[in-house]
Amino acid sequence: MTRRVLILGGGTGGTLVANRLRRMFTPEQLDVVVVDLDDRHIYQPGLLFVPFGRARPSDLVRSRTRQLRPGVDFRRAEIDQVDLEGDLVALRDGSTLGYDALVVATGASLMPEETEGLTGPGWGAKAHTFYSLEGAASLGVALSRFERGRLVVNVVDMPIKCPVAPLEFAFLADWFLTRKGIRHLVDITFVTSLDGAFTKEVCNRELSSLLEAKRIEVVTEFNTGQVDSAGGRLVSYDGREVGFDLAVVVPLHGGASYVNRSPGLGDDLGFVPTDESTLQSKASPNIFVVGDATDLMASKAGSVAHFEGEILVHNLARFLDGQPPDASFDGHTNCFIESGFGKALLIDFNYQVDPVTGRFPAQWGLPLLKESRLNHLGKLAFESIYWNLLLPGRDIPTVPTAMPLTGKHLVAVTG
Amino acid sequence: MSDATYAGRTVAVDPEGFFVDPEQWTDEMAPEIAAEVGIGELTDRHWQVIKFMRHEYEQRGAGPTVRVLGRTSGVSIKELYELFPKGPAKLAARIAGIPKPRGCI
């Protein structure tokens, strides 16, 4: 009998899992169904470049269905809720879809409504975000008109997608304003809820000295309670204020809304409690979770979804075969950090090993945690890798799923 | 790793003063830890948060963030900052004898 894997979400994780499954099983063996609200797949790493005129919004969007292999069934619908007991997903159009195994791949959503001043009238006067296509485009307009004063980059609270992106924005703003010849008229301030520019120790040290060299001020442990866009100030819950002439705010994130409508599936923020090793939902062995939708202590980043894909599909196939999962995700994350002036850093880490210096994936490779032209070219090349290898669910040559230790200068191995 | 003494008992703490082993914590230790971080008297509202931190840690193996505390502890984020100035999640975790909440990455 043909069984069915139902994949909720046709973004990075859902697409690559669907394509891997479609290659592994014949249509007679397995139905692979992907559900998503629309047919617009956005290349999210490109959003960072839009405000600086280095990417056009329309170039970042492609059809979701075109990224899926023939034989993957795409259903355009809004998800109402998952019935864990009945192995059923109810859609808003009133229909239901049953499954033998479910893959939650609905990512993280922006929740600006949770912070006073990030929605409604006045928002957008002096405060913007680049975490959406529309936001990145309107920020681009504001930035091109910006001539002097204080530019603030604010992360309201973790977790967020691509945790290094706000830092990259600050670095690129420094480069952009320098090139325009007005850097000396602008103060750049990075305001974060964390107690450092980045949570990981060695990485924090390197990035802090980079911020200092670029004269970017850092305000830490600032928990934004209100963004007063018209008045030009951020106000923290403990009453501190940071004034701005232009603010770039990364709103709070949560899981997709149907997660909280599905009893037993999600946590308080709508993310899905997930076994960090097998990638099964803690609620049920026939539910798997990939990418930003998990509650894992791994970055919400495309590279993570890619590395998880191979593990998840292996364990899912074992589950369909009645076998216990035997592949284990190590938390592998790999991120380029654009630092302006045609350079970038690279970090590579997992649950146990923090980002360190050295080279990736081995001695001959790209320099880790160090600015270089080569890393910048790597970041640019990633767009093509994303559409042509990552989404089709292919392995990326020389980039292993398990984090490589060779080439790394290990200083902090814990756990 | 170092030692600290609360309520007459020696316990292991990390360099920032967070308990290494939450099992070593007792209610009597809380006022002394609070005094160390500049919180005078622990009111019922403080205790509501401290108990919630312990409960969450036992359930999930990690202390909640301020945002989750504001949603689920019955105490608003604004009041959390009044009770535990500067960093409610960190201060309440320290007083509750659980490890420092890990920042998400």
Descriptive report:
The complex is a heterodimer of chains A (415) and B (105). Chain A has helices at residues 12-24, 133-145, 165-179, 201-213, 257-261, 302-320, 373-390; strands at 3-8, 30-36, 40-42, 61-63, 72-76, 79-83, 88-91, 96-98, 101-104, 108-110, 127-128, 149-155, 186-192, 216-219, 224-228, 233-236, 241-243, 246-250, 253-255, 287-289, 333-340, 343-349, 358-360, 366-368. Chain A is of the alpha/beta class and 415 residues long. Chain A folds into 3 domains: 3-107 and 256-320, FAD/NAD(P)-binding domain, CATH 3.50.50; 112-252, FAD/NAD(P)-binding domain (3-Layer(bba) Sandwich), CATH 3.50.50.60; 330-415, no CATH class. Chain A has a 5-stranded parallel beta sheet with strand order 5-2-1-9-20, covered by helices on one side. In chain A, strands 11-18-12-13-14 form a 5-stranded parallel beta sheet. Chain A starts with a strand and ends in a 25-residue tail after the last helix. The model of chain A has no long low-confidence stretch (mean pLDDT 95). Chain B is mostly helical and 105 residues long. Chain B has a single domain, classed as Arc Repressor Mutant, subunit A, CATH 1.10.10.370. The two termini of chain B are 24 Å apart. The model of chain B has no long low-confidence stretch (mean pLDDT 91). The interface between A and B is medium-sized, with 21 and 18 residues.
Question: Can you summarize this structure?
Answer:
The complex is a heterodimer of chains A (415) and B (105). Chain A contains seven helices and 24 strands.
